[in-house]
Amino acid sequence: MQSLNVLIVSTEKSKYINQILSSKYLNKLYVTSDEETDGAINLKFNTFKELAQKCRTLQIDVVLVEEEKWVLEGITNVMKQYLVNCFAVTSDWTELGLSHSYARKILTDYEINVPPKINLPLEFPVLVKGDGVLKKANSMQEIISIKENVYKMSGKVSQSVFLEKYLHGEKHKVVSIFDGKHLLTFPHKGVNRELLKDYSSKLEKMLIENKANFIGFINSEVIEENDILYNTGFSFEFLIPDFDAYDSTYPKDILYICLSAVYQKLDEIELM
């Protein structure tokens, strides 16, 4: 396999710098943080367009974005315009994380479990959710107060608000990577593997049937309760999964995974 020129996009020193530097698939490593890093070359930029142009000039093979806010601001779309492999979702898929009502609808369309909606709370706490709204309420008065504050902020947003059952199971962040054709979900300690395989299969179907055209990480916040795995949200930053959670003949090397994604060969990797 080829060696890769890799860029990590972050404002601070990457928390994964050692894992990337130790990869046998690394050629050169670039970082955007101001902090000097042994073994990495600092790369400055003012706009996503400027960064994309530098990636082309430096022949950077893979861009890993740790700053979720830049994913939400559309860095992937700009990189795609310059034919740079940016491992993050495009802006049309960030709505999964920004709009609870949209995420709930599309997930239920693909039979992915989400916490039940509540019309009249009989027990507390409950979650008050909406587009960009996520609050826990311990009483009816708190629910009313939250809704009033949302309405003052935006009448339009207030129309999306709903109540959701509060799940008491442990929350986990599960890492998946999509190559445009296949979704690879990494095992996670504390999450039932069979439930996770079923979840991953449904999420893959959702992405493919809706013609998702990105290569990158899509991280699911899940809670397992009463042998049911619920999706409670998404995030989009670059995360290295817990490689100790699975046994595999494939290298436990994130750049190997990335290279497989570039060539749309994630289906050749069996983790669970």
CATH architecture grouping of the largest domain: 2-Layer Sandwich
* Secondary-structure element order, N to C: EHEEHEHHEHHEEEHHEEEHEEH
Overall geometric form:
globular
Question: Termini separation (Å)?
Answer: 24 Å
Count of strand segments: 13
Helix/sheet category: alpha/beta
Q: What name does the CATH topology of the largest domain carry?
A: D-amino Acid Aminotransferase, Chain A, domain 1
Strand content: 15-25%
Q: Largest sheet, described in full?
A: 5 strands, parallel
Oligomeric description of these chains: single chain
CATH superfamily of the largest domain: ATP-grasp fold, B domain
Segments where pLDDT lies below 50 for 5+ residues?
A: none
The CATH class label of the largest domain is Alpha Beta
Number of domains: 2
Textual characterization of the structure:
- This protein is of the alpha/beta class and 272 residues long.
- It folds into two domains: 1-113 and 169-272, D-amino Acid Aminotransferase, Chain A, domain 1; 117-165, no CATH class.
- 31% of the residues lie in helices and 24% in strands.
- The chain is built from ten helices and 13 strands.
- The strands form three sheets. The protein has a five-stranded parallel β-sheet. The chain has a four-stranded antiparallel β-sheet with strand order 6-9-7-8, with helices on one face.
- A hairpin with a 2-residue loop joins β7 and β8.
- It is globular and about 60 Å long.
